[in-house]
Amino acid sequence: MGRNSSCYRCFWPSVASLRRIGALHNQVSYTVRPDYFYAFKFHHLPFRPLQNRSGASIVGWHASWWMGLITVFRSCWSGW
After folding, report:
1. Is the pTM of this model over 0.90?
2. 49-73 pLDDT per residue, tens
3. What are residue 48's phi and psi, to 5 degrees?
């Protein structure tokens, strides 16, 4: 019971922190190559006006939620 409760406590903070990392990663990637975002990533946004650095951050935020899931489930499974 203790192991499962600690997994549940760290679930949402893990997802939120990895989403922030995804947003930061896209900021760096947008600095290096913005045309990649115009060609491949901005069509994932549900709205079109933010096709700039803010849009790249939003794409990273939305694209990295699943990494939090994998991290939490893997750490709970391994007993960390």
Report:
1. no
2. 577 788 888 888 877 877 777 777 7
3. -100, -20
CB 27 within 8 A of CB 56: yes
Mean pLDDT of 25-53: 79
Cα separations (Å) of 40 from 27, 53, 66?
A: 15, 15, 19
Largest Cα separation within the chain, whole Å, is 49
Please, which residues have CB within 8 angstroms of residue 77's CB and are 6 or more apart in sequence? none
Residue 22 CB-density burial (10 A; 0-12 exposed, 13-18 middle, 19+ buried): buried
Dihedral angle sign, alpha carbons of residues 33, 70, 68, 45: positive
